[in-house]
Design a protein that fits this description.
Largest sheet of chain B: 5 strands, mixed
Largest interface: A-B, 63 and 63 residues
Strand order of the largest sheet of chain B: 2-1-5-3-4
Strand order of the largest sheet of chain A: 10-11-8-18-15-16-17
Number of domains of chain B: 2
Oligomer: heterodimer
CATH topology of the largest domain in chain B: Ubiquitin-like (UB roll)
Order of helices and strands of chain B: EEHEEHEHHHH
Strand content of chain B: 15-25%
Helix content of chain B: 25-40%
Number of helices of chain A: 21
CATH class of the largest domain in chain B: Alpha Beta
CATH superfamily of the largest domain in chain B: Beta-grasp domain
Shape of chain A: globular
Radius of gyration of chain A: 27 Å
Distance between the termini of chain B: 57 Å
CATH topology of the largest domain in chain A: Aldehyde Oxidoreductase, domain 4
Distance between the termini of chain A: 34 Å
Radius of gyration of chain B: 16 Å
Number of helices of chain B: 6
Number of domains of chain A: 3
Structural class of chain B: alpha+beta
Shape of chain B: elongated
Number of strands of chain B: 5
Helix content of chain A: 25-40%
CATH class of the largest domain in chain A: Alpha Beta
């Protein structure tokens, strides 16, 4: 969490139209027969429309939603649009190719609509000139311009050459949303036919002629290098061709390149490596979390994130029985996409070609330039489909390993990570502890709210320097931590602090970045406050969002009215006001949590949970999700992302975590880093509440409310507060009130 | 030069014979992917807990990462590429109709597992589906749609 990241996230979560839409900056490469009004589109004389997709497909539907936005304005059918994956380089100079911040569909939406509208206007002008009629008397439909008065029409392919000579309009007229044919209609994934036949190409599926396959043994202790190694036994394995020390990547290590994966794996098993001794051999995540807890309860000043009124005095002057405190703990988490990290690199003396499943092909491009000293045009980066991204593929450590290896052996090579490599050598979601305190006011109000958030800066951008740390406003200027900074509620006295406590563990963006841990604390504690006040938790939230005004925080305008309307819908459509009927013999309850994602998406979730009377089993029966993310570009895709995000949230709530003992991650596989399975899934009901606001993000947003909604439901069922994730029956059965203090 | 650790095996994959010379211990997964080019069978965990590499052995779903090459002889294997000629197995059609896939990486394994289930039990209940499919991991969380797609395939209404 530093200022660099703010820039990063502004561009990723925000719109960035000006950045992305560069009609005039695009050096046109069109031939006489082609029409390329901008970097995104080409129309060929055979009527083919090509769209360069400027985001990576990792399941969020960019290869469906982006062509839909273009086809809508260009007036072509969706199946007429052929997709090309954008490649870093001159064509997309200044156009963002990074996929992050839930902005893939929302941030490209206007750019692609304008690109399509500009092309449509130019095609219409070309046809009108051909017919010698007014452009306004022509319309465009299904890839043709039509002059209804005379019944004439010309296909776009026939117009391509003439359209290319038309001036590019500054502000092409966009369609009225009421005339949308594609946007706002449920669209199925365009890649599905290839996926179900096994012909879709992911990074691991890439093969290039002469390619070797490599695996690498990475330093087991964080940040320690290779002291020496004996390659003899590895080289004796049939099929093993090279054993090479690698300095790049997450920790460095030794790579074994072979004719096939099996030989590489056997070669790696036969390696003997001496690791440099380093300072992290004794790092233990349990001890680290105890340290976070100590910091959370300490009186030392943190970085001031928000200040309203005088929460400190309100707390100091509160009478006994008026205050409430609790600590909430979120562990380290892995991304664990099913496709492990990998990259195919083909480094030649004067060129480099990479194939990789990446959220940031431009970063891999820059890495290759830096590592090889090659000019940008000598490097080609092909982005394949991603077998899951979730933030892990914002890093290119695996690409750097492959580049170094290919250069060393002078051959193309696929560097693949095993599942254990992937689970143990992640850029984990950082562990954090949230301390929440409240002063309860007269008549069921909350007079003061204090949130002290303790966790690590994401190491993905490098940790802030001591000088940078002198700036007391640095985190607030960064609008972080998300979920604490943008606390939407109206408290008379509000104090939010952030206390960075760093560790040697590499950390990065996990799905929803800062939100999951902060929202777990914030929304769980609000439920505790509601119960202490004997108020309905849903009504308390509405009361704290009154009068439904707009809260301006930095660059965010949080519309509390939108959140109130989502809560009202969730009350009337969930059965909130009636008791939850648990299966016979079980304890049951409902829990609520809300979150607002960067002021543009508003969500409430209600979890229905039952627990065995002896607490030996926890079952989530149903999660209802109420969601205003503005104009829903593709409601079918939204439903899918809600199901996906909730499943992700449930995995973290009920199952997996990463423990680090003696300097290395303990978990190695889906066996010990457990994720949700079909038989454990609740019913998920998505209720989209469409508004005419600009489209907001939706890929990450369903994650954060899950844990507090489930924990609050468990409290409703059992009276036990679960303040530490994951929530397991064992933890439920043991003492639950570890951190609860009423004074 | 003949390698003492290499032997030649005849495999039957998708109805065709393939002759493979390799380490007898090499898991079928890498035989399929690296030696024969059947990249629809995915690597996910290598230890049989995720199901991304599910293929059919004599009609039964098995995990290719758990079958050494030497044990693959004498069986008929089907991979996702051989499940149907035209991508029109009821499960494939149902997967498209139910818009199951997100990143899609695990889905070939899911489809192979589901197709074998339906072969043995043409009309599974939710509980029967859950019991079989819970051995497979989808990190995108498409589970609800997988269950619906299996029912759709079972009901023979794959094409709506």
């Amino acid at each position: 969490m530093n200022v660099q990241r703010r820039t990063f996230l502004k561009v990723s979560a925000g719109a960035g139209f000006g950045l992305a839409f560069r009609l005039h900056a695009f050096a046109t490469q069109q031939t006489a027969a082609n029409f390329e009004p901008n970097a995104y589109i080409r129309i060929d004389s055979d009527n083919t429309v090509t769209l360069w997709v400027t985001r990576s497909e990792m399941g969020q539907g960019v290869r469906t939603n982006l062509p839909a936005a273009l086809a809508e304005e260009l007036e072509v059918d969706l199946d007429q649009v052929k997709l090309q994956q954008a490649m870093p380089g001159s064509r997309f100079k200044g156009i963002r190719l990074r996929t992050s911040g839930s902005g893939s569909s929302s941030a490209t939406f206007m750019s692609l609509r304008r690109a399509g509208a500009a092309a449509r206007a130019m095609l219409i002008s070309a046809a009108a000139a051909n017919w010698n009629v007014e452009p306004s008397s022509c319309t465009a439909r299904s890839g043709a311009v039509i002059h209804a008065a005379t019944g004439r029409h010309l296909r776009y392919g026939e117009l391509a050459a003439a359209a290319a000579k038309q001036p590019v309009p500054e502000n092409p007229p966009l369609k009225n949303p009421r005339q949308f044919r594609l946007i706002g209609k449920p669209l199925k994934r365009t890649d599905a036919p290839q996926i179900v036949r096994g012909t879709a190409t992911y990074g691991l599926d890439v093969r290039v002629p002469g390619m070797l396959i490599a695996v690498m043994e990475r330093a087991p202790f964080m940040g320690e290098g290779v002291a020496g190694f004996d390659p003899t036994k590895a080289l004796a394995v049939p099929g093993v061709r090279h054993v090479v020390a690698i300095k790049s990547g997450i920790f460095g290590g030794v790579a074994v390149a072979a004719d096939n994966t099996w030989a590489a794996l056997k070669g790696r098993d036969a390696l003997h490596i001496e690791w440099l001794p380093g300072p992290n051999r004794n790092f233990d995540s349990q001890e680290f979390i105890r340290k976070l807890e100590a910091e959370a309860s300490a009186e030392t000043p943190g970085y001031p994130i928000r200040r309203d009124g005088d929460a400190g005095s309100a707390l100091a002057n509160a009478s006994p029985g008026q205050t409430l405190h609790a600590l909430y703990e979120y562990p380290f988490q892995a991304h664990a996409p099913v496709e492990t990290m990998n990259c195919v690199a083909d480094v030649r003396p004067d060129s480099c070609e990479l194939w990789l499943a990446s959220q940031t092909p431009e970063t891999a491009h820059q890495s290759a330039m830096r590592m090889l000293g090659l000019p940008p045009e000598a490097i080609k980066v092909h982005t394949t489909l991603l077998g899951g991204g979730f933030g892990r593929r914002l890093f290119v450590d695996y690409a750097e390993e492959a580049i170094e290896l290919s250069k060393a052996i002078g051959k193309p090579v696929k560097l693949m990570w095993t599942r254990a490599d992937d689970t143990r050598h992640g850029f984990f979601h950082p562990a954090s502890v949230e301390k929440l305190s409240a002063v309860l006011g007269e008549g069921g109000t909350v007079s003061a709210w204090i949130h002290r958030s303790v966790g690590s800066d994401l190491s993905m951008f490098g940790l802030p320097s001591p000088d940078e740390r002198k700036d007391q406003q640095r985190y607030a200027k960064d609008e972080s931590p998300w979920g604490a900074f943008d606390t939407p509620y109206n408290f008379r006295h509000l104090k939010i602090d952030y206390v960075p406590v760093n560790s040697p563990v590499p950390t990065g963006s996990w799905r929803a970045v800062d939100y999951p841990s902060r929202v777990f604390g914030r929304e769980s504690f609000l439920d505790e406050v509601a119960h202490a006040l004997s108020k309905d938790p849903l009504q308390l939230r509405i009361d704290l969002l009154a009068p439904g005004d707009v809260l301006t925080l930095g660059e965010q305008e949080i519309d509390r009215g939108r959140m109130i309307r989502v809560l009202q819908a969730s009350r009337s459509r969930s059965g909130w006001d009636t008791p939850f009927a648990a299966p016979a013999g079980r304890l049951g309850g409902r829990g609520l949590a809300v979150n607002i994602y960067h002021a543009d998406s508003y969500m409430a979730q209600i979890a229905e949970v039952s627990v065995a009377r002896d607490y030996s089993d926890i079952r989530v029966h149903r999660i209802l999700c109420f969601f205003d993310c503005g104009l829903p570009i593709n409601p079918a895709g939204l439903d899918g992302q809600v199901e996906s995000g909730i499943t992700w949230g449930l995995s973290a709530t009920l199952h997996g975590k990463i423990d680090i003992r003696e300097g290395r991650a303990v978990q190695q596989n889906y066996r010990d880093f457990a994720v949700m399975r079909l038989g454990q899934m609740p019913a998920i009901e998505t209720h989209i509440i469409p508004t005419e606001n600009p489209p907001g993000g939706f890929g990450e947003h369903p994650v954060p409310p899950v844990a507090p909604a489930v924990a609050n439901a468990i409290f409703a069922a059992t009276g036990k507060r679960m303040r530490r994730l994951p929530i397991t029956p064992e933890r439920l059965q043991s003492s639950m009130s570890r951190t609860e203090e009423r004074t | 030069m003949a390698d003492p650790q290499t032997a030649t095996f005849n495999l039957t994959i998708n109805g065709r014979k393939h002759s493979v010379s390799a380490d007898p211990e090499m898991p079928l997964l890498w035989v399929l992917r690296d030696l024969l080019g059947f990249s629809g069978t995915k690597y996910g965990c290598g230890v049989g807990v995720c199901g991304a590499c599910a293929v059919h052995r004599d009609g039964i779903a098995v995990r290719a990462c758990q079958i050494p090459l030497r044990d693959a002889v004498g069986h008929r294997f089907t991979t996702i590429e051989g499940l149907s000629d035209a991508g029109d197995h009821p499960c494939q059609l149902a997967w498209v109709e139910e818009d199951v896939s997100q990143c899609g990486y695990c889905q070939a394994g899911m489809i192979m597992t589901a197709a074998a289930l339906l072969h043995q039990n043409p009309h599974p209940t939710d509980a029967e589906i859950d019991a079989v499919m819970s051995d497979s991991v989808c990190r995108c969380g498409t589970y609800g749609r997988i269950r619906r797609a299996i029912h759709r395939a079972a009901n023979g209404v794959a094409k709506s």
